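Progress narrative, work stream C.
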Amino acid sequence: MVRQATIDDLELIVPLFDAYRQFYRQPPDLELARSFLLDRFRHHESVIFLALNSGGAAVGFTQLYPSFSSASARRIYILNDLFVTPEARRQKVGEALLQAAAEWGRRMGAVRLTLSTALDNATAQALYESNGWKRDQVFCSYSLPIEP
């Protein structure tokens, strides 16, 4: 089952978010994960969908950040995070999370969802493409690291 998470789900999401960060080579830090997510909930800065198995255990999440497309003058959502626990992979959990995100975007009148993934994350790329996501062939992405 996939549902929109609330602040009451914080303790279910924290270990998933921490594992997601570790996947991207960040050190484990449950307190950092808790603080970051709590700020997102308190300030209504993201939408999180939570996947639960039949026993009610949290097995995955996706987090969307709102943004805008100036060219289309409409809202977009950045699907910034998607994580499924290793034991729940290949059970359509990722697909269910993607579908929930797409439905949310439709309900909110978004023109599109967008995401980025590591160039070597072929598993994620296959999941996205099999669910209708298109690899950008027009634009190059750049980022500017800002040091504190």
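Work stream C, second folded protein:
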Amino acid sequence: MVANRIRIAKDKADLVRTLVNDSFGKKPFQTYADVMVFAASYGAKYKKRVPLTVISKEPAPISLEIFVSRGYDTVIKLIAIAQTNDPKILSVYDLEAEAKRINIFEEYANGGLEKLREELRGTVDYTERLLLLLSLERLPNSDLNEEFNLSRFL
């Protein structure tokens, strides 16, 4: 039977819960699916693929239908094809291909969450820090990477 749920590693469950929108609306993501897609994309960008060992019970594995309804199935397929270079992995009729796509996505999400945990360590406002990370990705050669130089004011 194919695993039609996206699982979250137990050691990353607290981070995922923290990143999801709370009652005050101060968190950067609204759903667990949003967090997982961002983390998988982040992990794929840095080629950080980490196998899952122990699976979290809370948050519970997320139904694949949630990803499909939000349009994230395309991201899952893009990550899988980029990893394997095999167009057969996109088959909607092959249950093994679907299981492999899900496994690749889960492992990149796990790697992305690991990298995010390092990047967010010590941060109070995750939203602000994530915006800074995205700005640095968008403008890698900008002045944000340079030290502040007072000599330009002289």
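The chain has a mean pLDDT of 88. No further action is required on this item.
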